[in-house]
Design goal:
By secondary structure, the protein is α+β, with helices and mostly antiparallel strands. The chain is built from ten helices and 15 strands. A seven-stranded mixed beta sheet has the order 9-10-11-12-13-8-14, with helices on both faces. Strands 1, 2, 3, 4 and 5 form a five-stranded antiparallel beta sheet that branches.
């Protein structure tokens, strides 16, 4: 897509405010959390987990100006390019874009917004964006939470067979909430999981991220559940964040040697969260990061939509 010829209105071109960014950390969660619903999107990037858990990977730095959250980091598809998240808060979009244009001009860099939800592409084009590039590897998979809570329907017949196999092999299994009483056991289970030597760097980062949540779960606005076999062994667990009508599943770890454990965790966690939060309509299981195996697994659960994201550039 190309620009439509519009430019920042003249009243926004003289910018007197300045932005000073600082590193983002879990200590900033109370500050960041109130801004997330202001984005009015179901993508995982505008949740506490999507921001804070990936702050080190994307080198996020944050600034609050006029009750608006600005985040500087790197592009989703190029770790050498400075990029910004869409600002969220009280400031009108035209004002926040003008402020960032001034910030970037002073530093001799283009203004690049990364992981822009599809619904914000046209507003940015109307403000003078010069190019838009889709990020296919970073689209989020969105599901009907009722579908995942039941695995009903012909399309999920093979998945139901896996669930039936698990139930037959493990009568009396339980799904229990994550609490201070079992968080240590979850950590031991997680540490017992081996990772192949050829796993990408992002997989090692993910491992450190999970360790952080298990070490300090009280910092995060997450709810978790663990799948336990009758013999008292935990074989899977998940953590999710409720964002309006959407459950965003940030963490899901499974012992894949236990047939059907993944499907049962997915179904029962969705059902548990729906029972706790009746307003939930959707489950966001995040992106596949371009991993073919992960892409196949997410597609097999029959998403109802792909939440597409874009890089939007101002020259």
């Amino acid at each position: 897509m190309r620009a439509t010829g519009y430019r920042i209105p003249s009243q926004y071109r003289t910018v007197r405010k300045s932005l000073t960014f600082k590193p983002m950390s879990p200590a900033d969660i109370p500050v960041i959390a109130p801004f997330m619903p202001r984005a009015a999107t179901r993508t995982c990037d505008f949740t506490v987990g999507g921001m804070v858990l990936w702050a080190d990977w994307f080198r996020y730095r944050m600034c609050i100006c006029d009750n608006t959250l600005f985040v500087r980091g790197i592009s989703e598809d190029d770790m050498h390019s400075t990029a910004f998240s869409l600002p969220v808060g009280d400031m009108p979009l035209a004002d926040s874009v003008a402020l960032l244009l001034d910030y970037c001009k002073r530093r001799g860099i283009p203004l690049l917004f990364s992981a822009v939800p599809q619904e914000y592409v046209e507003p940015l084009l109307s403000l003078g964006a010069s190019s838009v590039i889709e990020l296919p590897d970073w689209a989020d998979y969105l599901y009907s939470i009722d579908s995942l809570a039941t695995f009903a329907g012909k399309k999920l017949n093979k998945k139901r067979n896996h669930i039936n196999r698990f139930i037959a092999d493990n009568p009396g299994y339980t799904l229990e909430p994550v609490t201070p009483d079992n968080i240590g056991e979850l950590s031991r289970f997680f540490e017992s999981m081996t990772m192949p030597d050829n796993k990408p760097l992002m997989a090692e980062y993910d491992r450190c991220m999970v360790r952080e949540v298990l070490a300090r779960p009280q910092l995060y606005p997450f709810e978790g559940a663990a799948l336990r076999l009758p013999g008292a062994d935990i074989v899977a667990f998940a953590f999710g964040e409720v964002a309006g009508d959407t459950l965003v599943v940030h963490i899901e770890k499974i012992d894949h040697s236990v047939a059907g454990a993944g499907e049962v965790l997915c179904r029962d966690f969705a059902a548990l969260m729906k029972s706790r939060h009746p307003q939930l309509l959707y489950e966001n299981r995040e992106d596949d990061a371009g991993d073919p195996g992960l892409r196949q697994a997410k597609q097999a659960l029959c998403p109802c939509a792909l939440l597409r994201k874009y890089n939007v550039r101002f020259d």
